[in-house]
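Standup notes
- HV: blocked on the assembly model, inputs below
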Amino acid sequence: DTGVSQDPRHKITKRGQNVTFRCDPISEHNRLYWYRQTLGQGPEFLTYFQNEAQLEKSRLLSDRFSAERPKGSFSTLEIQRTEQGDSAMYLCASSFLGGAANEKLFFGSGTQLSVL
Amino acid sequence: GIQVEQSPPDLILQEGANSTLRCNFSDSVNNLQWFHQNPWGQLINLFYIPSGTKQNGRLSATTVATERYSLLYISSSQTTDSGVYFCAIRRQGGSEKLVFGKGTKLTVNP
């Protein structure tokens, strides 16, 4: 068990460019979440998957954002036509939802996005 | 939506002191977790505690679900306890997302 892995750790891009982040969850975790965190705030929910199905998306997730989890393992988050307001830490978390319902989230180290 | 309020927003302690962090929430919950975000940004899960009391070393947590609050106790604080502590909740019968508070920033001085 190597924990939740996110890549890249940092990303600097110019406004208008597309960026893609990757998250590898803890193996056998069936749920995967994406959150966004700005300075001084708590993480804000973006979307989550159960296995390969995307079951919920926040209104924060505009049509420039898309997330996939094609085989129920790793996930990607793509931002098209980046804007300066997209600058934030993007956090991925995974969990196992089983019969006991004591679902604990485990977070990766995040991808820090800076849009110039 | 459900509201999560954490207090105090900032806390400065001397090493060895004890502290209590509070999380108030506005609705019934079926999931409540405490996290510690270290100065490098890593979020560490401390407790899953939708009700009752748990202890892990110098840390303990209590959730009184009927009164809609949770407390995190840190005893004999160490400089490595510094960082931001977040409470996160899931509303019972609602969305599956965890909603985070704004956190309590703890600074432990040597």
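- HV (later): unblocked. The first strand of chain A starts at residue 5 and ends at 7. The radius of gyration of chain A is 14 Å.
- Next: hand off to the docking folks.
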